[in-house]
Structure formats: structure tokens, C-alpha cells
């Protein structure tokens, strides 16, 4: 599956991060809360005295110690949680994406017959390049197209060049709700951590946003060839996708166990477009190939 087991610093050096502000913001606050909890511990008696001095009628000595201890404990726990959140977001942004890309590629059994593949929401190209490396490994003449709504073509092609797969990769700017490709065009369609971002302008929990996400799933199915394979890794809304795929009569729908990404639940869904139209809901299976993901 391409270059597996790579050093995470190398992956970050190649792909970078789209959002440094969030983990840095969380890290700064984690440090502030941690320092505050240490100060609570060091100056515990002074804090207790301050409570008694400010509200002597309200704080008895015992109650003042309880409030000071409780406040210090909550502050320390908040610091730990913020450290974890910052670490999880930092890890999810690149390293986990790389790991999940390897697993998504593994969900396609035979890459040697793949001539056309599409990565919807390719971003900086982690999954895109992973697919390209697999095509190169198989000696395939296939190509993979990366589509993104932002003009990231130059930076994405640059990472493909660093990975040595530029001849397998092309990029296009476009809207995932109206994919600029004909029906039944791609052998494989993949998407990682993207679909849940569609429709956010309507609010993530609104019916309008859900409808926009379903349009993306419908477009993915539309551009897949009969017998083609789709693999989607996404956050939170996976049950909606499964329901939509069932409505579209997809076959062999498989859902991974939960993987914590960006502090929420995520899953990988793989499915196949039937060669002929089928009647009745598709079966949903738990795919053990995706288990034991940290």
C-alpha cells in the first residue's frame, strides 16, 4: 500500500496542516489551566484564606478548603482534557489521515484493473497520493483525479511530486454536489474527512445541510461505474450515508468500527455499485478489516 510505516514527522513535513490555530489555541489554554492548578496547589492555604476573607459569612474554614480543592481539581482536569484535545486534533489532521488512507486503499481488493479513480475533497492530497502510490505499485496505467472546492491544485500537485507519483495524479476544482464528470466514469471513488463539511453554511444539524451531504453521496454513486467501489471515511453523519446508500441500492455496504478523529466518532464505509439494479435494502456489515484503529 505504498509507503507504509513512515515517520510521522516526514508526513507532516510533506503535507503540513490546514488549521494550526485550533491545536495551538487549545495548547495555550491547556498550559494556562495546568499552571493555574499548580498555583492552586502551591498556594492552597492562601486561596482558602482568600475565600474566607472575601465572604466570611459564607465560607467556613472547612467549606473554604472544599471549594478551593474542588476548584483546583476542576482546573487540573480541564488542563488534561485540553492537552488531549490539542493532541487528538494535531494527530487527526495528518497522521491519522495517512493511516486511514492506507486502510481505505486496502478496502479495494484489486487495483490492477482500476483505470480511473476519484478523490472527492482531496485537500493537500494525502489520500490522493496514497491511491496514486497504489496504482504505481501495481504497475497500473490508471490515473486518479483529485477534486476540491478550493484552488489547491499547485500545492496538491507539489506533494504528488514529492511522493514521486505526479504522473498518476491530476487535480480539478469543483463542487462535490455537482461533480463535473459524466455518469459511470470512475472505477473507484474515495473521500476522506470531507463530506461532513458540505452544507455547513446552513448549520451542521439542519435539514438543509443534511440534504447537501446526501447530494454528495448521490453524486459519488452517479459517477461510479457499475461494479465500481466507493470508500468514504467521515465524521458523525455516517448513519445518514448508510441510509442513503441503501436507498440507492448499493451492495456490500460495510461499516468500520468507530475511530476517534477530531474529538468525535468517525467510520469508514465501503460499498459497491451493482452491475444491475437490485430491489430491497442492502445489507450492512461490520468490516473487521478496519478494527483496532487507535
From TrEMBL:
GO BP: alkaloid metabolic process
Domain (Methyltransferase type) ranges: 118-230
Protein's organism: Tagetes erecta
Protein's UniProt keywords contain Membrane: yes
PANTHER family: EXPRESSED PROTEIN
Statement: the UniProt record of this protein carries the keyword Transmembrane helix: yes
Name under which the protein is recorded: Methyltransferase type 11 domain-containing protein
Segments passing through the bilayer: 24-44, 51-68, 74-94
GO MF annotations, alphabetized: S-adenosylmethionine-dependent methyltransferase activity
Amino acid at each position: 500500500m505504498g509507503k507504509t510505516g513512515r515517520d510521522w514527522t516526514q508526513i507532516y513535513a510533506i503535507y503540513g496542516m490546514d488549521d494550526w490555530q485550533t491545536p495551538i489555541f487549545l495548547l495555550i489554554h491547556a498550559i494556562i489551566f495546568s499552571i493555574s492548578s499548580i498555583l492552586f496547589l502551591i498556594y492552597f492555604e492562601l486561596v482558602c484564606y482568600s475565600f474566607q476573607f472575601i465572604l466570611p459569612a459564607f465560607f467556613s474554614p472547612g467549606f473554604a478548603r472544599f471549594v478551593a480543592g474542588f476548584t483546583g481539581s476542576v482546573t487540573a482536569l480541564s488542563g488534561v482534557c485540553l492537552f488531549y484535545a490539542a493532541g487528538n486534533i494535531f494527530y487527526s489532521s495528518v497522521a491519522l489521515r495517512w493511516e486511514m488512507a492506507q486502510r481505505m486503499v486496502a478496502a479495494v481488493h484489486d487495483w490492477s484493473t482500476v483505470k480511473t479513480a476519484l478523490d472527492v475533497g482531496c485537500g493537500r492530497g494525502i489520500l490522493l497520493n496514497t491511491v496514486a502510490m497504489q496504482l504505481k505499485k501495481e504497475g497500473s496505467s490508471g490515473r486518479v483525479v483529485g477534486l476540491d472546492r478550493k484552488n489547491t491544485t499547485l500545492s496538491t500537485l507539489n506533494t504528488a511530486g514529492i511522493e514521486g507519483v505526479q504522473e498518476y495524479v491530476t487535480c480539478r476544482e469543483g463542487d462535490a454536489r455537482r461533480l463535473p464528470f459524466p455518469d459511470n466514469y470512475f472505477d473507484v471513488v474515495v473521500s476522506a474527512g470531507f463530506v461532513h463539511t458540505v452544507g455547513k453554511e446552513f448549520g451542521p444539524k439542519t435539514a438543509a445541510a443534511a440534504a447537501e451531504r446526501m447530494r454528495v453521496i448521490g453524486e459519488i454513486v452517479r459517477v461510479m461505474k457499475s461494479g465500481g467501489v466507493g470508500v468514504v471515511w467521515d465524521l458523525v453523519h455516517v448513519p445518514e450515508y448508510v441510509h442513503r446508500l441503501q436507498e440507492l441500492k448499493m451492495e456490500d455496504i460495510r461499516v468500520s468500527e468507530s475511530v476517534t478523529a477530531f474529538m468525535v466518532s468517525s467510520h469508514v464505509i465501503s460499498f459497491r455499485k451493482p452491475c444491475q439494479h437490485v430491489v430491497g435494502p442492502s445489507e450492512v456489515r461490520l468490516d473487521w478489516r478496519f478494527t483496532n484503529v487507535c
